[in-house]
Amino acid sequence: MAATTKIHCIAHFIEPDLNKSNILGTTRHNVYTNTQRYNHFCSLSMNGCQARDPRTPVGMTETRTFQAVSSPAMAMERLNSAVSELGFDPPMFGSGIIRLEVPIEEEVEAIDWLRAQQQQQHNIPRCFFSGRRQARINNGYSSLIDYGGGNDGSSLVSIAGLGSAVFFRHFSPFSLHDWRSIKRFLSKKCPLIRAYGAIRFDALSNISSEWEAFGSFYFMIPQVEFNEFEGSSMLVTTIAWDESLSWTFGKAVHELQRTMRQVSSNIVKLRKEVPNTSILSSNNVPSKKLWDFGVNRALQMINKNSSPLTKVVLARSSIIRTSPDIDPLTWLATLQVEGENAYQFCLQPPDAPSFIGNTPEQLFHRNKFDIYSEAMAGTRARGDSKALDLQIALDLLSSTKDDKEFTIVRECIKRKLEAVCTTILVEPEKTIRKLRRVQHLYARLRGRLRSEDDEFDILSSLHPTPAVCGFPTEEARVLIAETEMFDRGMYAGPVGWFGGGESEFAVGIRSALVEKGLGALIYAGRDSRRK
Fold it and tell me: Is there a contact between 471 and 307 (Cβ–Cβ < 8 Å)?
């Protein structure tokens, strides 16, 4: 049977010791009621998904930019004054969102700022997102992807957020109602007000205990945000309120000030090198024996004459515990060195582990009516020399087996874009994308949306891609749900952000669920396909 292995992980795997304790208490069988899940943090912010009519925008959307200062401490001082002044002069609208931003005349890395926020209360959510700064395609072609601009016109490199001005979470699958609930707080005239978050790989499967705080999806517009630009920075606070959700302007200001009191301006640059770490224990789910059984069963299903399945991607999880403890942001900073051409992200709801990752795979990028997506499949290692690296790339380009897999992925994405786009351009149709340690077959797709409101249809149709699920999608998803013995959660799901006129999502592979002091859940996938 033909089978190709793809490892989407950020640590080495060790054979399991099933007698050792489960580090994060993971199980497929822990299911909680919606009431239990909501109670532990609803009072910290408002859940925008509870809006009765999400088609109605909030009463006001505004960005106020203050004069640039020389340091994060001075920016924080200015924002404290501005928020206090707002508290004495509240807007006349019953709902709205206001962004207050202070440019900083030095470039500070957003991840360093977030690492400095050692909040006393674990129930304050946080997020981090860094777009791909440079994507090198096919020996020298490169492009700079612009993720928004600062006052000086430079590109937004990464953002870090603390606290949620408004969050969006539910335990039902992400719906058009939920998408509209997010979009009502966003506006083209305030492009840097964005909702950052992730969606489960399979919203129809049961949510296990380690993923319960994330729900079926979790997005947040940060209360306090640090923006890293090329050559400068910006400190931001955001106030969101909606009286129809019992969240008044006064309450929003009070909660923002409580979060701001915990913000530190003493920023120490993180060392971006692999820490000297020892693995104390490792537990793989499923075991090697059960894993082999599952893969063989999937191959048997695929090779039945009556089966429509041509490919399925099964995953495996490893639970590890290290000495010293794993710190999610230190780990993520280390991964930035490995992934210049990748997205880095961290998402942590209140009282929850951190979902972190370093993924090269774009799901889509929308800029007004223009939509971009990518097809990536087939994997080879990089060569030790230029000559060997080129030979490996040529072998990958000429591989019949890898071409079949790549064609499935590319054509599947193309068909889904055609359903909502007036035109589709695939260029290049097949080339090599080189990353630091591996190289892949690659194609870039571009379309023109009929309506910007088709964004929800794009997201719901493109996910999951054949590269992380299989083909046909629904048959592969059902087989995965029947076979895997753990909850993927947000692993291999969409992770990214919504903006007023722009949105971008990556595929959440090469990711882990990490909680300092408790350990990490790391995931890997294996692609099985018909001969």
Answer: no
Token pair recorded at residue 199: 């969606």
151-187 pLDDT per residue, tens = 433 489 999 999 999 999 999 999 999 999 999 999 9
What CATH code would you report for 46-133+154-261? Answer: 3.60.120.10
Domain assignments of the chain as residue spans, ordered by start: 46-133+154-261, 279-327+361-529
How do residues 507-520 score in pLDDT, each as one tens digit? Answer: 999 999 998 777 89
First to last CA, the chain: 6
The confidence score (pLDDT) of residue 337 equals: 72
3-state secondary structure of 506: strand
User: Do 279-327+361-529 and 46-133+154-261 fall under one CATH topology?
Assistant: yes
In this prediction, residues 128-148 reach a mean pLDDT of 51
Mean pLDDT value of segment 247-275? 87
d(CA 180, CA 186): 10
Candidate from 415-429, 438-452, 512-526 with smallest mean pLDDT: 512-526
pLDDT for res 280: 83
CA distance 479 to 42: 35
Residue 8 CA to its chain's centroid (Å): 15
Contacts of residue 27, defined as CB under 8 A and 6 or more positions apart, other chains included, come to 208, 209
Q: Which DSSP string do the residues of 432-490 spell out, in sequence order?
A: EEE-SSEEEEEEEEEEEES-GGGHHHHHHHHPSPTTTSEESHHHHHHHHHHH-SS--TT
Please give the residue that has the higher pLDDT: either 277 or 530.
277
Give CA–CA dist 29/354, Å, rounded: 21
Question: pTM of the predicted model, to two decimals?
Answer: 0.88
Over the chain, what is the mean pLDDT?
A: 85
Measured CA to CA, the distance from residue 393 to residue 355 in angstroms comes to: 32
Query: What does the pLDDT read at residue 304?
Result: 85
Q: What CATH number has the domain spanning 279-327+361-529? A: 3.60.120.10
- HSE on the CB side for 244, CA within 13 Å? 15
What b/e sequence results for 181-191 when a residue is b if at least 16 CB atoms lie within 10 Å of its CB, and e otherwise?
A: bbbbbbbeebb
Name the token pair of 248.
Answer: 């008044």
Hey, which bits of 248-292 come out as E strands?
Answer: 278-285
State the pLDDT at residue 531. 59
Helices (H), 288-385: 288-302, 328-338
CB atoms within 10 A of CB 160: 27
Segment 338-346 mean pLDDT: 83
**Torsion angle of alpha carbons 285, 287, 293, 295, nearest 10°?**
50
* φ and ψ of 215, to 5 deg: 65, -155
Cβ contacts of residue 329 below 8 Å, gap of 6+?
111, 114, 115, 128, 270, 346, 354
